[in-house]
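INPUT
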Amino acid sequence: MAHSIAGFGHPLEVRYRRLPGAARETLRWLGWIGLALALYTLLLLVYGRDPLLAYSDILSSTLGSTFGISEVLVKMVPLVLCGLAVAIPARVGLVNVGGEGQLFIGALTATWGALTFASLPAWTLLPLVAVLGFLGGAAWAGVCGILRARNWLNEVFSTMLFNYLAILVVSYLVFGPWRDPTSANYPQSRLFPAAAWLPTLGDTRVTVLLFVAIIGVALLSFVLSSTRWGLEIRALGGNPEAARRNGIAITRYLIVLMIVGGGLAGLAGMGEVAGLHHRLNPAVSSSYGYTGFLVSWLAGHRPVLIPVMAFVLAVLASGGDILQITQGLPYAAVTVLMALILFVVLAARARGARTA
Amino acid sequence: MSEPLLSLRHVTKRFPGVLANDRVDFDAFGAEVHALLGENGAGKSTLMKLAYGYYPMDQGEIWMDGAQVQIHSPADARRFGMGMVFQGFTLIPAFSVAENIALYLTALPAIPDARAIAEEIDAQGRRFGLVVSPQRVAGTLAAGEQQKVEILKLLMAGARVLIFDEPTSVLPPHEIQHLFEVFARLKEAGFAIIFITHKLREVLECADRITVMRRGTVTGTIAGAGATEDLLLQMMFGGAVAEEHAARPPVAADQQAPVLSLENASSGGFGLRLKDIDLELQAGEIVGVAGVSGNGQRELGDLVLGLLPCVSGRKKLFGADATHWGVARVRQAGVAFVPENPIYMAVAPGMTLAENFAVASPRSYQTAGGLGIDWGRVRTDMSSAYRALALEPPDANMRAGTLSGGNLQRFSLARELGRSPRVVVAVYPTRGLESRTTAHAQGLLLSARAAGAAVLLISQDLNEVFSLSDRIVVLRSGRFVGEARPDQTTPLEVGRLMTGGD
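OUTPUT
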């Protein structure tokens, strides 16, 4: 029984050390990102592109204008939410690789709400759509949480497989029953009523979800650091065997934290359909769920660092769009850069765990 | 005894914050059992792991057969004829004994001659009293048998210096005797045996020479023949000799309702299941549960604590039916839990002592319905818990992972016993602790008893069970197979019940 909570490292095998300050940590990770950029530079050189020009294109197009910054924020909001979706379960040792699927299901349930209750006024419809988006992602992840808590199926497998399932379900709906009859050429749902459009800030595409994300970060930081639940969560993440013997309700936390995480990813999906596309289509996510995984790992699963890392990756993602135009590079080129960052980060973690 | 087989010169090793070995000299000759004695953290395992190339040494020389050698890895050490049996065994459970041994042999041909290896295992096994069937699957072997395989591995790989790191900690009493017989046969054949331990009795029983270490240095090397327990204690602790426990008043004669009772209880869950356990604990008594590890001891503790479901029968706490209570409720009702190895079973190493203290009863420290925690009260409670046990409270901001094993067990005892529990479940509470900490922990269990708590003491150490318990029960294969008062039985008799002999 002592080993029934599979998936956690043996506490004795993990070397613990004093965690350095958040600022030091951030600098260290930025250094690792620098290494990934250096590798990417080599790659660009091999392809005969000018790396300096590429990087300056990325920076000037994103941070060089108000519009550029606003577009970075548009990508940053779902990345923050999807980062939290990974970070929150990670605090008790769960690996949620299903942010993408949870986002898709959140977009799906939000779309259902927006189209079904289309006649409601905005002040009831918008909260309803938001809640439905959250619940969709929450339920999708909650199933994986229950499977894990009962020791039936490891969450790594279930959340990953659920990604494919979610994307296929959405595709089925927009190609089939939910297809907008007026846009015969595109697999997409009908347009949302205006009452279900998330308000934007000024004439940018940034929605009010930005504030929700910020509040979410602050709230979760507070819960983790100051409350009884945070104490229990940290104890559970720090040593599940001891936590079990101290009477902490492990099963409940495994399920609840998966639900909260999945709900946040679902909220990101809601933001995409209600804030940007105003309809459901198979391209609702720009891989935010997967990139959110990277965000969380870069941030060491600490809520306060997640906006920072989400910002960095949002700059890269926006820059990727620009590179297609200025350098004639496919968008996959920037995906390669993100993959490089992920490798470097994982290597750095492994190294940290060994040398600590 | 001309030239030592293995000779260590001025070995120094520094770990962050500790000088684990400080210019240590050590000689092991052929045809001797050389005990390396010391309390936990004295540096004995470190010294041998340096010799074996497991850690790099900061300074020092290794000589074998009169020639200096460079050892940078266990592979080097093996080439020079050194072998080490670690505390945790290294067999691959799915492989047979022969396969496990073959895997370790350096000069293994591409197509190993399975029959030759099996014959060699049999021959060596008969010669040294290490008989294990080569066909057995390693995962099905008991601890003692696994140890035999580990030794056979070293012998067949040509080792002449055999290092044993706390080899008796995994063995039941009669197998310890057998191990010493194996030592004797190996000695006859000329091997050098280095026996790392902190158990005085075992050292006196089997060692030709004894080297005592204390805080990273050697206090002395003496002949086994002239050694006495007092002398060794003197060398280990420099004067502070552990005292015998004072005589205790008998358990209260007026039999009240038991505070804890198991009625015909059987446990569920994976692994070994307890069957038809009947047990009653009165306030102010210690019931010792004797048994060989793996016969349901941990399960018994978990069953009382509510970690394992009670699938039939009943469990009562303080008169109430507690059969289906969860851990939190059991603990809240006044049950304390003192586990072995607190860094694994009691604390989160990355959290501070204050946080670890609060985690044992988080609800009682919460403010605003859980939104906050009254850290001031946690700190004062923690200090008073330490003081109640006559201990100096440590800095509450220290991370639990930075404490030594002994200090961590003191923390665990303070946290659990400091809140005046009515039932204490102690599962191997002194396993792995050095003598002084052990004596102190045992003293604390006795004071809990004096304060009216009922103590369920689960231990493999018969001395501990006999010296602390008012009653002894014996657990074997998940069942109680005997019960007696310590003055009406003998360790030999209990040992026989434990191991199933008649």
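end of record. DSSP finds 13 helices and no strands in chain A.
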